[in-house]
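Lesson 9: reading folded outputs for more than one chain in a single document. The general rule is that every protein is listed as its sequence immediately followed by its C-alpha cells, and records are never interleaved. Here is the first one.
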Amino acid sequence: MSFGKSANDFLLAREGRQAILSEVLRPGEWGKQRATVFLSLNNPGPDKSLPGSDVLFKWMLGELFVVFPELTPVVEGRDALGPYALASLDMDPVELKKRCIELETSCAAGRLIDLDVYSARGIQIDRQHLSLPGRVCLVCDQAAVECIRNKRHSFDEVIGKVNELLTPFRA
C-alpha cells in the first residue's frame, strides 16, 4: 500500500518545520512574544490526510483563536506530515501549555492533535515540565510511548481507532 510519501519525505518535512520554528523563535520581531504554539496533527502511519483530518485541524485552529483571541498568526502550511500552524502571544508559556492540554483533551479526537508550546528562548514546554504523565495510547490505557516501543497493537488496530476518532469530523 503506497500513499506517495516516503520516510525521506517525512524527514524533510520535519526538518522544514524545525527550520520554520527556529526562524520564528529567533530574537527579533516575533521574539517579543513570550510564547509560541505549534499546532499539528499526529496521525500514525504513512497517510497523513485521513478523511476528517483537515476538518479536525481547522476546528482546533479555530478553538485556539477563540480561547486565545490575542494570538498572532505566524505561519500556516502543509507538508508531507499534514497541516501545521504557528502562532505567538504574550503569555506565560507554562500557563499556555496547561491550557493547550485542556484543549487537546476537550474532545476524543484531540488525541490526534499536538499543541507544542515554546518559550521565547526556544525551550519546549512539555507535559514533563508540568509533572504530568505522557500521552495515553490511542488503543489502550497504557503510556503511548511504551505501546509504540513494544509494538503492542497492530497497525490496523491503531488506524481503526484513528478512523473512529475522526468520524465526527467527516462530512
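And here is the second record, again sequence then C-alpha cells.
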Amino acid sequence: CGDYIVGFVIGQGSFGKVKEAIHSKTNMKCAIKIIKKRNIKRVPGGEEGLMREIEIMKLLHHPNCLELIEFFADEEKGKLYPC
C-alpha cells in the first residue's frame, strides 16, 4: 500500500475495511480504508457515494476529525486506498 506499513483491521464499512497503518518515511500513524472496486458496484449509488465521501473528507480540517491525507488506486489489485 504505497509508503505505508499496513497493520490490523480496526473497522469495517459498507465499501471495505479500515486498517491501522504507519507511514514508512515519517512514522505517522494513520488509518487506511481499503476498498475493493467490485464492492463499489454492489452498493446502490456506490460510486457516487464514494466520490462524495472523498470530496467531503478533502474539505474536513478539524482537530477532532479524521483528515484525508492522500488517495490512490491500485489498478493491479482493483483496490482504492484513501489514506
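What the second record shows: The chain has a mean pLDDT of 80.
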